[in-house]
Design goal:
By secondary structure, the chain is of the alpha+beta class. It has a three-stranded antiparallel β-sheet with strand order 1-2-3, with no helix packed on it. Helix 1 (8-23) runs antiparallel to helix 2 (27-43). The N and C termini lie far apart (41 Å). It is 37% helix and 16% strand. A hairpin with a 5-residue loop joins strand 1 (70-76) and strand 2 (82-88). It has helices at 8-23, 27-43, 50-53, 104-109, and strands at residues 70-76, 82-88, 94-98.
Length: 117
């Protein structure tokens, strides 16, 4: 056990698979890679990292890339707080996440995403 991580090799493998799925030009290959990542996570009884959880559709396991495979909208909810609504382009599943200005999550999401063209 290293720094509270039960299986550091499994965590590295999860990040590698997630990156490969995002860079894959085929939706089928990407979906299969992410399903494999979920199986590895379950086998080692690991928690899903936020980038993996919010980076794939919970229904069809397609990687969610804003503007390519998903639609992202930021709006104010009923309480006046900002929320981000992500809609999968393949199966129209929607998920909402709160947007907190000083959160670490927002800084990660603002990082530029490179698209393969």
């Amino acid at each position: 056990m290293t720094n509270g991580i039960r299986e550091p090799q499994a965590l590295r493998t999860l990040h590698y698979i997630h990156t490969a799925a995002l860079l894959s030009p085929s939706p089928t290959v990407s979906s299969n890679l992410l399903e494999g990542a979920v199986r590895i996570k379950e086998k080692h009884q690991m928690r899903t990292t936020p980038d993996l959880k919010r980076g794939m559709c919970s229904r069809c396991k397609l990687p969610l890339v804003g503007g390519v495979t998903s639609r992202v909208r930021v709006r104010r909810n009923g309480g006046g707080q900002l929320s981000r609504k992500v809609t999968c382009g393949a199966c129209d599943t929607t998920r909402r996440y709160p947007v907190v200005k000083d959160s670490k999550e927002l800084k990660i999401e603002q990082a530029p995403i490179r698209h393969l063209t």
